[in-house]
């Protein structure tokens, strides 16, 4: 099974088609669920106000997360898109949360991994498709323990796409992952100690008159990479001076 080389383009085109067909499918669902706070998780990372919402379906889609060092693990239930006989279906899910460091360790990066399975059956062309995509956005609001004016980092997007001609079959696995390098977008002596995160997630199924397309998300994980917060130069000099005090007192005696 191989993903189409133009999966990102196919995914964006599919979303454009869905926008053109707005109102023809399921009614939008604007509800949200706040799962609260998780942590501190070693080495001192907390996830705050973990909230999911959907523009297309009732929630939950991701479900309540389980914390692990250092991240959150979700077991999605009912996060699917299904289309048959020429229909188009999309399921949209969004996660919002903040990541807070205790101060000793900074937040170097945030990644997500997700996966599931898809099925493509029937008679048709490569217009029968199953697609998945994720966008990860990060806003830095605190550096080295000090609140700062929000810094928007470059978002990252990943997608996979499969079609009836190249990838027909049932219960075929799929997966994708994205990573935002937070430390790499800041100065070397800076570490983010609080960030706000927005994750947009979509599944899309496109069918033809005699075909079926189905895709499900069954695994979703968020992982944080950390690093020690650099000691500022004045702080390092003060530490060095304090370390010399006992020796100076002995000499004075």
Structure summary:
This protein has 253 residues and is an alpha+beta fold.
Keywords for this structure?
alpha+beta, disordered N terminus, 253 residues, 6-stranded antiparallel sheet
What would your notes on this structure say?
- This protein has 253 residues and is of the alpha+beta class.
- Helices cover 15% and strands 56% of the residues.
- The chain contains three helices and 13 strands, in the order H-E-E-E-E-E-E-E-E-E-E-H-E-E-E-H.
- The chain has helices at residues 7-20, 164-167, 233-252; strands at 32-41, 45-53, 66-68, 71-74, 80-84, 88-101, 105-123, 129-143, 146-152, 156-163, 169-181, 192-206, 210-228.
- The strands form two sheets. Strands 1, 2, 6, 8, 9, 10 and 12 form a seven-stranded antiparallel beta sheet that branches. Strands 3, 4, 5, 7, 11 and 13 form a six-stranded antiparallel beta sheet that branches.
- Strand 3 (66-68) and strand 4 form a beta hairpin.
- The chain is elongated, with a radius of gyration of 23 Å.
SSE order, one letter for each helix or strand: HEEEEEEEEEEHEEEH
User: Main beta sheet: strand number and arrangement?
Assistant: 7 strands, antiparallel
Please identify the structural class as seen in this structure: alpha+beta
Span between termini: 79 Å
Q: Given the structure, what is the number of helices?
A: 3
The percent range for strand residues is over 45%
Please tell me the total number of domains: 1
Query: What is the β-strand count?
Result: 13
